[in-house]
Specification:
Helix content is 29%, strand content 38%. The chain has 294 residues and is an alpha+beta fold. The protein has three domains: 16-118, Immunoglobulin-like; 122-209, Immunoglobulin-like, CATH 2.60.40.10; 212-291, no CATH class. Strands 1-9-8-3-4-5 form a six-stranded mixed beta sheet, with no helix packed on it. Strands 10-11-14-13 form a four-stranded antiparallel beta sheet, with no helix packed on it. A three-stranded antiparallel beta sheet has the order 2-7-6, with no helix packed on it. Strand 8 (96-104) and strand 9 (107-118) form a beta hairpin. The longest helix has 36 residues, at 211-246. The termini are far apart. Residues 1-24 form the signal peptide.
């Protein structure tokens, strides 16, 4: 008499056994994605989504396929589609664990999906303030991987987490003994269909790690030299003007006077010698003064 009850008890255990699945999924920032409970039967009674985000906040969505009744306190970007969840305009804040329970006539299907929203970085290759080649992948999620060609042990990597949960990956090539015509930064990221290659070119010899310093010194030297030349010419002009005041016959005058003075120069060779002596004294005076500054 007790056998039927025992059989009924065993059948009940079989009915309420749960199927557990744990998966991982990824979505691109700003793109739509669909999370699937992986249950395709038509005997679904209720679909329940429980979501815990990375910042520990929670929300839930329940959906009854037979009546299309939906209850939700999640973002309007999240809506059920059958036993799946449609997420539109994915954001970095959507990262988290998405738990789906499908209640059907033969039991419960339980699925856990870890979602990560991927953000594509932009990549730059520059020479930093220390004149070292520096490769950066900015705003990536997860952080990008950077390598160099040719490879070197003289590489300084660095990662920084930004407020928006994206990363800045920096790799600095500090090998001062590199000899070659080109140096290539290689960047890989899950959002790239293929690796990115950025190349900075040298001059065929030692890589111009100190090019910025050399350029700066050259510019400063040119400025100093130009200033000295200008200063010398200014002082020479001042000496000549002073000599004109003492010797009114030196310099440009009206044509009749100029002709008369030229005649005087022809008749008096010592006038030319005097002018030469005046200019020479001005020149050496300026030269000696400028030497005291060097």
């Amino acid at each position: 008499m007790h056998v039927p009850h025992l059989m009924h008890f065993r059948i009940t255990l079989i009915i309420f056994v749960c199927a557990n699945k744990v998966t991982a999924d990824a979505a691109l920032l700003g793109k739509d994605t669909i999370l699937d409970c992986n249950y395709k039967e038509n005997s679904t009674i209720l679909v329940f989504w429980g979501i815990q985000f990375q910042d520990a906040s929670r929300c839930h969505i329940s959906y009854e396929p037979s009546s299309t009744n939906t209850s939700s306190n999640c973002s309007e970007r999240m809506r059920p589609q059958g036993t799946s969840l449609h997420l539109s305009d994915s954001q970095a804040s959507d990262d988290g664990m998405y738990v789906c329970d499908v209640i059907h006539t033969t039991g419960i299907s339980h699925t856990e999906i870890h979602l990560e929203v991927l953000v594509q970085p932009y990549v730059i290759l520059t020479v930093n303030s220390q004149s070292y080649p520096e490769c950066q992948a900015i705003g990536g999620k997860p952080p990008a991987n950077i390598s160099w060609s040719p490879e070197s042990e003289y590489v300084k990597p660095e990662r920084k987490l930004l407020a928006n949960k994206t990363w800045v990956t920096t790799s600095t090539y500090t090998n001062e003994n590199f000899h070659g015509s080109a140096l290539t930064c290689v960047v890989s990221h899950p959002t790239f269909s293929e690796k990115r290659f950025l190349t900075i070119r040298g001059n065929g010899g030692s890589f111009p790690l100190w090019a910025g310093l050399v350029t700066g010194i050259s510019v400063i030297s040119c400025v100093i030299l130009g200033t000295l030349i200008f200063w010398q010419r200014t002082n020479i002009r001042r000496c000549i003007r002073g000599d004109k005041q003492n010797n009114p016959t030196v310099g440009q005058q009206s044509n009749p006077v100029r002709e008369r003075n030229l005649g005087m120069v022809r008749r008096k060779p010592h006038f030319i010698q005097h002018a030469k002596a005046t200019l020479s004294s001005c020149y050496y005076s300026v030269t000696n003064t400028s030497s005291s500054y060097t």
